[in-house]
TrEMBL record:
Gene3D superfamilies named in the record: Gamma Fibrinogen, chain A, domain 1
UniProt xrefs under Pfam families: Fibrinogen_C
Name of the protein: Angiopoietin-related protein 7-like
Keywords of this entry: Signal
Lineage, uppermost ranks: Eukaryota, Metazoa, Spiralia, Lophotrochozoa, Mollusca
Length: 509
């Protein structure tokens, strides 16, 4: 067996024996230091027990506990003169002598932060058996002196902790109380809202009741108003009817009395609707709206009035040289120069008039009371159709003198017959110059219905019932003095009349 293999177990055994011993001490002069203030801080490694079984010291070492383990800061080996240092700001002395008298001292002239730490003494030696031993002392610490400030700070930290804890408790208590208070408040609010809602609902119910009552009242008022209006309307209509009846009675009485004076006929007729015959007291030429809807000018003066004027020329303000449509429908100004219109004249003279008959016993001269009694008891409204005979009259003025021509029978056919004229029963202070026009259709500058090879209307600047042209040309050129283009009545004029009116009325003779 190799000598090395026999030596190692012996060395381990010896080391085990000496490791447990505490022969070597490491004393410190100041175990608590002020950094930068405490001076002469020393660590002294020595063997107070003077252990005999050490023949030679091989190495002494002072170690410091680091995070990675123990680390040498000073080391003295057998034969060294000076201590080997790794620590800073320290001085060291030591002496390895025979046996256990060896020592090593490490001194900080002034304590530094590096001074603070945990140290131990570590010794390697040979014993009397020639074995290598290893001993280490108990660790010795150098620590910072207790700092008053630190204590104060610690106390302050503790106090702060206590205060924080107290405040935390206070806050928790406050928050819990606030939550409770908030809950109570919310509950109260909720109750108040519910109460308000209940009150509002009650108010709404009352409002609905009031509204319904108002609506009911409004309906009743409206109904009452409607009834009142209906009653008033009926009353007014009745009164209007009464007035109409009274007016009708007055007219009837007037005509009856007139008629009874001139004739003993037992039957007479009064016209409805009203024509110009019933228009009196509105001036000589009132413009009226007949019940037929036609607006006409009445002549209430000439030959006892009752005329509907169908043509008037008083100035050059209106051009009469026009075509068929204008003469058919009418043109001009009812208050000045105008042509009423062939269609309207046709309608007026040929419409199926609605007549109301009032039958009275006659042959006797009845007084007013008797007529009223008969009216009340026997008034009969009979309606039937009747072709009303009309008369036609011309009124002219030439060189300051008035002329007229009247035909007690006049009719005008419809458009399909080109408004052919039929007249008879002449009277007047002029010659019957319309005789040559009797039975002729109407012609205009755009509708030639005459008997001439040319167009009389175009040549003579007019529109008339032309035959082989004319003896009368009252729609001719205003003011014309030659060429028969003027407003002519052959037996009177040498140029144009300065006034012309044509008028019709129901024949009542
Ligand atoms: Ca012709």
């Amino acid at each position: 067996m190799d000598a090395t293999w026999t030596f190692i177990p012996k060395l381990i055994l010896a080391a085990a024996l000496v490791m447990s011993s505490r022969a070597w001490h490491l004393n410190v002069t100041s175990s608590e230091i002020d950094v930068g203030r405490t001076a002469q801080v020393s660590l002294n490694c020595f063997n107070p027990y003077q252990q005999q079984d050490i023949t030679d010291l091989l190495m002494m070492r002072i170690e410091k506990k680091q995070l990675t383990g123990w680390s040498s800061v000073a080391e003295l080996r057998h034969g060294d003169v000076d201590v080997r240092l790794t620590a800073n700001d320290v001085t060291a002395t030591g002496n390895i002598v025979s046996g256990a008298n060896s020592f090593m001292r490490l001194t900080w002239p002034l304590a530094t932060n590096d001074t603070i730490g945990l140290y131990r003494c570590d010794v390697t030696f040979l014993n009397s058996h020639g074995s290598v031993g290893w001993q280490k002392g108990l660790p010795t610490s150098i620590s910072r002196k207790s700092d008053v400030t630190f204590q104060i700070l610690s106390e302050m930290v503790e106090e702060t902790k206590r205060q924080c804890t107290q405040q935390k408790q206070d806050i928790q208590t406050y928050v819990a109380a606030a939550v409770e208070e908030n809950k109570r408040h919310c509950l109260k609010e909720k109750q108040d809202v519910l109460q308000n809602m209940t009150a509002m609902l009650k108010a709404l119910e009352i409002l609905e009741t009031v509204t319904a009552a108002l609506e009911r009242n409004q309906r009743e008022v409206l109904l009452h108003s409607q009834r009142l209006l209906a009653n008033t309307s009926a009353s007014l209509e009745q009164r209007l009817s009464d007035v109409e009846d009274k007016l009708w009675i007055r007219q009837t009485l007037y005509l009856a009395i007139s008629h009874s004076r001139s004739s003993n006929s037992s039957l007479w007729v009064s016209l409805q609707p009203q024509s110009c015959a019933s228009v009196k007291g509105f001036g000589p030429r009132p413009v009226v709206l007949l019940s037929s809807g036609q607006r006409v000018v009445c002549d209430t003066v000439t030959d006892q009035g009752g005329w509907i004027v169908i043509q008037r020329r008083v100035s050059a303000d209106v051009d009469f040289f026009r075509g068929w449509e204008d003469y058919k429908n009418g043109f001009g100004d009812l208050h000045g120069n105008f042509w009423l219109g062939l269609e309207k004249i046709h309608q007026l003279t040929s419409q199926a008039s609605c007549l109301r008959f009032k039958i009275y016993c006659s042959g006797l001269h009845m007084n007013l009371q008797l007529v009223l009694i008969f009216y009340g008891l026997f008034s009969l409204s009979l309606r039937f159709h009747h072709q009303v005979r009309h008369e036609l009259r011309f009124d002219l003025r030439f060189q300051g003198k008035n002329y007229y021509a009247s035909y007690d029978k006049f009719s005008l056919s419809g458009e399909t017959d080109n408004y052919r004229i039929q007249i008879s029963g002449f009277s007047g202070n002029v010659d019957d110059n319309m005789v040559g026009h009797n039975g002729q259709p109407f012609s205009t500058n755009d509708r030639d219905n005459d008997s001439w090879e040319k167009n009389c209307a175009s040549v003579y600047h007019g529109a008339w019932w032309y035959n082989n042209c004319h003896s009368v040309n009252l729609n001719g050129l205003w003011g014309s003095t030659g060429g028969a283009k003027g407003l002519r009545w052959k037996s009177v004029t040498t140029g144009s009349v300065s006034f012309s009116e044509m008028k019709i009325r129901p024949f009542a003779k």
